[in-house]
Amino acid sequence: METVSENRAFGGTQGVYRHTSTSTNCEMTFGLFLPEEAKDGPVPLLWYLSGLTCTHENAMTKAGAQAWCAEQGIAIVFPDTSPRGEGVANDDAYDLGQGAGFYVNATEEPWAPHFQMWDYIAEELPTLLGEKFNLDMDRQAITGHSMGGHGALTLAMNLPGRFKSVSAFAPISNPTASDWGRKQLSAYLGDDEAAWAKHDASLLMAEVGFDGPVLVDTGTNDQFIDLLKPEALANAVATKRQHATLRLQKGYDHSYFFVSTFMEDHVSFHAEALYGE
Amino acid sequence: METVSENRAFGGTQGVYRHTSTSTNCEMTFGLFLPEEAKDGPVPLLWYLSGLTCTHENAMTKAGAQAWCAEQGIAIVFPDTSPRGEGVANDDAYDLGQGAGFYVNATEEPWAPHFQMWDYIAEELPTLLGEKFNLDMDRQAITGHSMGGHGALTLAMNLPGRFKSVSAFAPISNPTASDWGRKQLSAYLGDDEAAWAKHDASLLMAEVGFDGPVLVDTGTNDQFIDLLKPEALANAVATKRQHATLRLQKGYDHSYFFVSTFMEDHVSFHAEALYGE
Fold it and tell me: B8 vs A260: CB contact, 8 Å cut-off?
C-alpha cells in the first residue's frame, strides 16, 4: 500500500492511499480520514460509498463529513466506485463501466475480470484497513449517495452483524425496476433476474430487513427521483416494520449541497449506534 | 445578470450567477450562498476571496463555509479570482494572468484592459449584490485564502469603514518582498514600487492598520510558508498594537483541508463583529 497524500484536517489526518487489489485486479485508490483519537486507540469506522461518475475524491472534498467525524471520533473511508485503468473495460455511457461499478461482482464479459466491487468493499478493503490503520473493525457503519446509497443499503442487509447502522442520501432504492439498475445489473450479472435480487434494497428490505437503525434522506426536488424510487423502499420499510427514519427533504436536489447539508445528521445517527453499546 | 444554478443548501440557497462586468470588460461568474433568513430581511455579507488558480467554485464546494454561515444567518459570496475568456490576456504560469488577478487594477499591458479586479471586488460587485439580493450592505466582513487572504487584508485596510472584521487563511502577507508578489505587482502595476505599497498587507498594517478585529491562521507545515511571510505581518501587527489574533496551526498545510478545518472559527469570529452592534 502506497501513501498518495496525507493532509492534516480537523485535528486528524485526511489520507489518500493506493494499493493493488486482488479483487479488481488493478490499482485502487481510497481516501481515509482518521480523527485525532486514532493516535491513542482504535476508532470506529464509517464507510461512505459514492455515486455514479465519482472517484474516492468527490465526497472527500465536498461532503463536509470530516468536521462531524472529528467531533465524534470516528474514521471515515471513501472508496472508489469502480476499477479503473487502461486495461479495464469501459463504456461511453456515464452509468456503466468505470465510475459505475454498482457494488456487484460481475459475472459477464467484458466486466468480470475487474468489476468485482462487492468483494472489494465487503472483503478486501476492510481486511486491508483493519491491518494498516488503528480502526475498531467491530464498530462499523455505512452510508452512501445515490449508487453509493444503493451499495450501503445492500451491503448492510446482506452482511448481518457487520454494520451497526446504515444510512443513505438519495439512494437508488429499487434498481431491478429502474433504468438506473436494469441496464447495469443485466450487463454485469446477466439476464437471470434471480441474481439481481440481493442487489435491490427494496427487495432486500421486504425479505430480510436490517438488524439496526436505518436513516434515508431524499430531496423532494431531486432531479433523478423517478430513477431512485424512494417509494419502493418506503413501502418495504413500512411493511417490514423496520426500525427506520425516511425523510423527504423539501426543495433539495441530488447534489453535494444536499449531501453536505444533512451530513451532520447522518454522522450523529451513526455515532449513536457505534457508541451505543 | 443570469442565474447559472441554484441549489438548496443548509436551509438556504447556493446560487451561481453570471454578469457582464464593466470593470473587467468580460463575463464574470460568482457564487452566493443566502441563508434562510434572507427571505425575511436583509442579512449580513461575508466575502471569501480565493487563491491562485481558483474560480468561484473551489471554496464554494470545498471550504464547508455554508454550514456555519447558515447557523449564523450570514450570506457568503465567492467571486472569481480574475477576468477570463478568449479575449483576455493570459500567461503559461499558474501564478500570472487568468486565475491570478491578485486583486489589483492593472495599469500595464497586456493586462490593463481586463485585469481590474480591485474595482470589481471593491465597487462593481458590491453594488450589484446590494441591488439584486437581500443583503445588509452596512454589515460586511471579508476573508480569503492565500492570494485571497492578501486581497481580504488589503481591501479591508484600504477601505476603512467598509468591513466590520477581516480574517485570512494562509495569506500572502508581504508580496512586495516575495516571489508571490514581486513578479505579479511588476507585471500588473509596473516597476515603480510606490504603486505596490497599498497592495501589501504588512506595509498597510504598519502604516494604517484596521479599525476592527483581525484573525489570521497559517499552518506550520504550509508548503508555501516562505512565500507567504507570516512573520512580516506578525511583526507589523505587534508593532502597530493592532487588535488581532494570529495563529500558527500545528501540522496544517496550504490545502482546503486546512481552510475547512478552521472555517467554523472564522465564521464565528465574523458573526460576532457583524452582530456586535
Answer: no
Model confidence, pTM: 0.90
B10 to chain A, any CB pair closer than 8 A? The answer is yes
Chain A contacts in chain B segment 60-79 (CB below 8 A):
61-62, 64, 66-67
C-alpha cell at A96: 456503466
Residue B260 sits at the chain A interface (C-beta within 8 Å): yes
Which ipTM value was assigned to this complex?
A: 0.82
Using CB atoms and an 8 Å cut-off, which of residues 181-220 of chain A contact chain B? 219
Asked if B217 and B262 count as a contact pair (C-beta separation under 8 A), the reply is yes
- The CATH number of residue B209's host domain is 3.40.50.1820
Chain mean position to CA A173 = 13
* Among A219, A251, A256, beta carbon nearest to B61: A256
Beta bridge partners of A168: A216
Q: What is the pLDDT of residue B277?
A: 59
**Tens of pLDDT, residues A214-256:** 999 999 999 999 999 999 999 999 999 999 999 999 999 999 9
| Domain span including residue B260 | 2-275
